[in-house]
Specification:
7 strands, 6 helices, alpha/beta
Length: about 210
């Protein structure tokens, strides 16, 4: 019996070869794990094709010389310019699917930006999209979309002091074609109205007669 075990005992050379093989295999497996983690982290860091999560500040439904205009102010937190304009395009599309109007306008503000309606102008605007299904009927709209964003980073007061970048119609179409999400922003007012009729809670709206531009 001892003689049999002696015959089965591997040589020192074989032991060294097997040990080297296992070491290479373990190292390769570890490398694969790290490469997988790197790829996962890269995917997670990629910007969303549909923009970012946002919060509705207000929705204004306006009667402008016999036309129906809907203006929405939303906020995002620490978003870059391209992400802000993608968010605005997503929201304007969702809004157009929900309600009929002649002109839709979505303005993206920083989370630290102004809440007062009168202050939503100039450097407070991080991105803006206007959409007119029938542009010829809306003064100032030569095409169905006008989309732009400020390429600056918001300061502590939520103001943007970068350059305004405008998108052409082909860029808008390309962005919207890649979207896999068509949702509106989170609406705190609707969430607070739990248990009420969804159509009644909707977005907080203000109606007015609009006489000046967009």
């Amino acid at each position: 019996m001892k003689a049999i075990f002696r015959k089965l005992r591997p040589s020192k050379r074989l032991v060294v070869i097997l040990a080297a093989a296992f070491a290479v295999s373990a190292a390769s497996g570890g490398a694969a794990v790290y490469v997988g983690r790197d790829r996962l982290a890269a995917r997670l860091s990629e910007p969303s094709a549909s923009g970012l999560e946002c919060t509705t500040l207000r929705t204004l439904k306006l009667d402008h010389r016999g036309q129906r205009w809907i203006r929405m102010h939303v906020k995002t937190d620490r978003a870059g310019g391209p992400d802000r304009v993608r968010t605005a395009l997503r929201v304007v599309g969702a809004l157009a699917n929900k309600e009929k109007a002649d002109l839709y306008q979505v303005v993206v503000l920083d989370e630290a930006g102004p809440d007062d309606r009168a202050a939503v102008r100039g450097a407070a605007i991080g991105a803006e999209v206007l959409f007119a299904p029938g542009p010829r009927s809306v003064k100032g709209m030569d095409e169905a979309f006008r989309a732009s964003y400020n390429d600056g980073t918001a300061n502590p007061d939520g103001m943007f002091h970068g350059k305004v970048v405008s998108l052409d119609l082909d860029e808008v179409r390309a962005i919207m074609a890649k979207m896999d999400d068509r949702s509106l922003c989170i609406d705190p007012a609707a969430a607070d109205a739990e248990g009420t009729d969804p159509e009644a809670s909707g977005h907080p709206a203000e109606s007015e007669k609009a006489h000046n531009g967009h």
